[in-house]
Amino acid sequence: MGGYIGSSVGNVANAAERKQTYSITTATTSLTGLAYTPTKVHVFHNGVRLVDSTDYTATNGTSITLTNAAQNGDEVVVISYPSFQTSDTVSAANGGTFAGNVAMSGNSTVGGTLGVTGATTLSGNSTVGGTLGVTGKITSTAGITFGSDTADANVLHDYEEGSWTPVLTGITVASGTLDGTYRKIGGLVSLTMRLENATLTGTHTGSKIEGLPFACALRTSSSGPVLYNHASGDKPVGILIEGGTSLAYFQYNTTAAWQGAPFTAGANRYLAVQLTYNTDS
After folding, report:
1. Which of 4, 31, 146, 244 has a Cα-to-Cα distance from 49 of 20 to 30 A?
2. How far, in Å, are 81, 99, 279 from residue 158 at the CA level?
3. Whole-angstrom Cα distance, residue 155 to residue 147?
């Protein structure tokens, strides 16, 4: 007979019992030729189970001494079980740590704290009733929803932040600092551009910013401040982002109309831009 520990008997062959029968012909108290693990052995004398340490002594693993001698014609049966244990298990009641990959193909419910230090791939629904602690990254190819609203329009599909390199055309930046940062949440992009302590050369005709980190879906005007200082004649400056492109045009308002922004050549020029636009149509 094989023990059952959640696997087929073929996988736990070492747990099979061993049985040895003695047909007694001469009165004896000694049963030899055995291989057993102490405390994991049963002795039956003429069908009656004997009591360990009272009716027999079994301590050395190879022989058993009966307290009362078996007589001619008696039958003594020794059944032993080898010692075994299931290794690398996690307790259902007390929890534990899975060091390898864990695959769950159906719904999973976690009532306590689930701590994940590696990658986790869930092919079914997972409900976490406690705190989900993740020391790595969570990757969602379908997006993230908040609350009970699962409509596609309310799914967060993307988040990204970083730096970008603005390119000014229509005016040449001979020296100084020109850089930018951005943050993209879903289809909404917020970016900054800084031109600091710069020396400009050339003309200002058709001045624009190229190389926006993401293309704008529709034509839009700037929704943030544009600050520029130059020698004289400050004018309100705006930015127009061309729809379907990564271009932003500088413009300023005169008594006549909006036209190219009044950038002038010279040193110690400063420009600060904040822009918000949408990549979704």
Report:
1. 4
2. 60, 31, 12
3. 11
